[in-house]
User: Which sequence fits this backbone?
């Protein structure tokens, strides 16, 4: 179904979004076909619940349709812009109440399909730089930042996992974020 | 620690996702009025978004797009009953961006919830004497839409995308020349899942036309002081009448 993904460039996606602003639902469906697997990957990894993730994904695309006129190509890449909308929604949901997991990480792994187009869209330099700076953090600090960002873990969940008071986790997060910012120099 | 550090770390944790729900809601509200916070959030999104490459693509069920189409159509239908269509929202948003960049300057629009009054010039189905105000929580998402019928002096507030934090309520305010510089309460928006209608019989229609409306987040039962106390979410009215 998503075989067309690899053929879709950033510019193609931007054009589809632009047509969506004008109310072109067919263009929006093509945008959905080209991007939904990536956004679903984000939401499912955070929510770990297939039904809730599919419900959230539908909401996310309604938002993308409604916000399409706000996208500014100069500010962020279109896929980053869409991923931010998806991640924000998933985090909002998981912060209010973590859904009961109905899928294991190992099962999620089996669902992954190759989607190199998206990885190439992420600026490789930016990614290398961020990885370099993350590697500069102590091991457990690096882990908490990644668990928070990628899996949507709360301070309390992190405190549990690392057997630390919540206040300590908060301090670790703040220090790590400041250190990252300094390292990135942006 | 300076205020700037506080704002930066708040933005960082907002983007990271570790704020609790009430804090997230507060930050989302505040970024509309706080350019520094908004900028800090965008910068943190840029810093951390390379991590998105760690997310793998996973195909959702095949039939989801039909549901999305239905939700979009339903949302548009609800909105079109009394307010401009989604496409018109997009136009409004572009105009607002233009004003911000333009002569009015940031100071004139210092408030977070921007109120736009439409005088029926956007091909809208509005009749004469009907105005629409869009309350924006941030640059992008309309939070409330208010229609004002000058003839009957009735305002109707429809939530578009507003949630109420636990123990809080939204309160509607008006500032007119007649009532002086202090906002006057028009009452609470008790049930934000439904439209609320308020009668403004005491106001002169000409005054209403130039009024500033605002919505603030207050403790349950309304502002304890008679003035807005919550997050600064009331806005200066901008008229786009020709």
Assistant:
């Amino acid at each position: 179904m998503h075989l067309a993904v690899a053929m879709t460039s950033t510019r193609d996606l931007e054009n589809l979004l632009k047509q969506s602003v004008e109310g072109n639902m067919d263009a929006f469906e093509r945008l959905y076909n080209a991007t939904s697997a990536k956004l679903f990957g984000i939401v499912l990894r955070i929510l770990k619940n297939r039904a809730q993730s599919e419900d959230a994904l539908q909401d996310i695309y309604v938002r993308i349709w409604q916000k399409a006129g706000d996208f500014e190509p100069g500010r962020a890449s279109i896929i980053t812009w869409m991923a931010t909308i998806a991640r924000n929604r998933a985090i909002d949901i998981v912060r209010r109440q973590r859904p009961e997991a109905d899928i294991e990480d190992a099962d999620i792994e089996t669902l992954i399909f190759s989607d190199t187009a998206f990885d190439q869209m992420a600026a490789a330099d930016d990614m290398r730089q961020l990885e370099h700076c993350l590697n500069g953090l102590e091991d457990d600090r690096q882990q908490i930042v990644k668990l928070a960002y990628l899996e949507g873990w709360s301070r309390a969940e992190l405190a549990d996992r690392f057997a630390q008071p919540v206040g300590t986790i908060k301090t670790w997060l703040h220090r790590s974020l400041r250190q990252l910012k300094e390292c990135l120099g942006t | 620690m300076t205020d700037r550090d506080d704002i930066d770390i708040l933005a960082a944790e907002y983007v990271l996702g570790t704020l609790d729900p009430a804090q997230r809601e507060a930050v989302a509200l505040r970024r509309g009025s706080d350019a520094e916070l908004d900028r800090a959030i965008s910068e943190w999104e840029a810093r951390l978004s390379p991590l998105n490459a760690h997310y793998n693509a996973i195909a959702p069920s095949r039939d989801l797009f039909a549901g999305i189409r239905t939700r979009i159509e339903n949302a548009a239908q609800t909105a079109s009953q009394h307010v401009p269509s989604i496409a018109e929202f997009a136009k409004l948003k572009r105009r607002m961006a233009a004003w911000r960049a333009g002569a009015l300057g940031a100071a004139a629009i210092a408030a977070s919830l921007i109120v736009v009054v439409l005088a029926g010039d956007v091909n809208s189905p509005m009749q004469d004497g009907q105005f629409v105000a869009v309350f924006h929580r941030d640059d992008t998402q309309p939070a409330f839409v208010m229609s004002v019928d000058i003839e009957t002096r009735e305002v109707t507030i429809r939530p578009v995308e507003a949630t109420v934090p636990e123990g809080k309520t939204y309160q509607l305010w008006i500032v007119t020349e007649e009532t002086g510089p202090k906002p006057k309460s028009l009452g609470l928006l008790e049930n934000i899942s439904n439209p609320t209608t308020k009668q403004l019989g005491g106001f002169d229609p000409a005054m209403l036309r130039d009024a500033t409306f605002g919505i603030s987040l207050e403790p349950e039962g309304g502002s304890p002081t008679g003035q807005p106390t919550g997050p600064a979410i009331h806005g200066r009215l901008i008229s786009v009448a020709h």
Residues 1-6 of chain A have pLDDT under 50 and may be disordered. The longest helix of chain A spans residues 25-47.
